[in-house]
Amino acid sequence: MTDPAFDTAVTRAYGTRLPIVAGGLMWLSDAAYVSACARAGIVGFLTAASFPEPDALRAEIRKTREMSECGAFGVNVSMLPKLVPGERTQEIFALIAEEGVRFVETSGRNPEPWLPMLKEAGITVLHKVPSVRFAEKAQSVGVDMVSIVGAECGGHPGLDLVGSFVNLALAERRLKIPFLIGGGVGHGGQLVAALAGGASGVVIGTRFLVAEEITAHPDYKRALAGARETDTMLSMSSVRNTIRTLKNETAQTVARMEAENPEIGIEALLPHVSGRIGRRAYETGDVSRGMLSAGQALGLTGEIAPLARILGGLEEEALAALARLRPAPARSGEEIAV
Ligand SMILES: Cc1cc2nc3c(=O)[nH]c(=O)nc-3n(C[C@H](O)[C@H](O)[C@H](O)COP(=O)(O)O)c2cc1C
């Protein structure tokens, strides 16, 4: 039986057991991973940008549905201009609606232009933003839920770099729609803290990178499992596209180039930051090169394990956190000290 504390707007929206969302992971959120999330009782999102050919995305959606055993899943549409140009966004949303997908996670840009068609198709929109001011904007344009990922997160923490604990408190004061907190979440106690602070759930990326169902070389996962919270770094802020990645040769080269020439521009950085190099690292396990998104929750990853076991650990920690907050009821006949 799931603890009633975990019954939130998030579990009700997705029909999931736990108020945890597995955020889209470029190149890594495929049918194997997303369906493992569904089977384990949380919702995950295929990354549309990892499947540039519409037929490939369509096939991956169908495969995910088959493997999900009726569990919830959705598609992440990162609307960063470089990844998915505007014209494709429309096409991707149309394909998602056609395939009967019920959930999307949007990020990178205001989804307002597409909300009417998504609502028409009965799709629940979870929009991801890097700070509470953007969450307020998303709320005003009518998204269903919003996740706010703080400075600790793997991938793009935005430019404000506000930490997740401050985001939680600000969001509780400023938002009326259900919100999730992400960035650095890798312990069940953090889920309870988020729920106590007014969130309806958490979004996780980094902590799940060591899941057995993630399609990546074992050496990549071993490197992450052995990494610490201090093994990430920020770069790309000179081109207003700040990213937190594993601290490796590539990230250090990019940061040095930016420090030497703050006006450097994306063209000069592209040979280092191209997604293809990162993708190769997932295939070969050589983590010294490529911009490999990873957050401070690396310090909480532990060993490579099936996703269900990782989730089981988070749930146990969350229950222990709840028990710390709830005093044990007095047993009959026991005197209550005054
Ligand atoms: C390897 C990796 C790839 C990611 N790719 C995407 C992506 O394509 N689209 C997106 O919206 N978010 C992406 N994210 C962000 C995650 O969905 C999630 O918001 C974030 O990882 C949460 O913070 P955490 O890493 O501290 O758990 C990525 C994160 C990681 C670690």
From TrEMBL:
Annotated InterPro entries: Aldolase_TIM (IPR013785), NMO (IPR004136)
SUPFAM superfamilies attached to this UniProt entry: Inosine monophosphate dehydrogenase (IMPDH) (SSF51412)
Entry keyword set:
Dioxygenase, Flavoprotein, FMN, Oxidoreductase
Instruction: List, in alphabetical order, the Gene Ontology terms for molecular function in this entry.
Output: dioxygenase activity; nitronate monooxygenase activity
Its protein name is 2-nitropropane dioxygenase
Q: What organism does the record attribute this protein to?
A: Limimaricola cinnabarinus
